[in-house]
Design goal:
Elements lengths: L1 H22 L20 E6 L8 E6 L4 E5 L3 H20 L2
Antiparallel strand pairs: 1-2, 2-3
Length: 97
């Protein structure tokens, strides 16, 4: 009887460990509050898209002051800012050749 109970406990622990491992680690950072005011391109040094597993699609803007601001991907000014940063990065990479 004790052997059966021990086997059941080991089996339960294995199932728990397996299901926890399959769930994986969640996203590092998601946005729930957004900065809706346009940010000057001179104040932004880069950006990161949030994980697709976040409930709200967003972009984290990295500022020259070392802060991160959550902004909506759908905002026109954000799209323009991303295009500017992408162009700046491509031109900067080409000028170092």
């Amino acid at each position: 009887m004790a052997r059966l109970a021990l086997s059941a406990i080991v089996l339960m622990m294995a199932v728990i460990a397996l299901t926890e491992g399959l769930r994986g680690v969640g996203p590092k950072k998601c946005c729930f509050k957004f900065n809706d005011k346009p940010v000057s391109k001179e104040k932004v040094v880069g950006y990161i898209k949030t994980s697709q597993r976040c409930p709200n699609p967003a972009i984290l803007l990295n500022t020259v002051a070392g802060r991160q601001l959550c902004v909506r991907t759908s905002a026109t000014w954000v799209k323009e800012l991303i295009n500017y940063l992408e162009t700046k990065n491509v031109l900067g990479a080409n000028s170092n050749m």
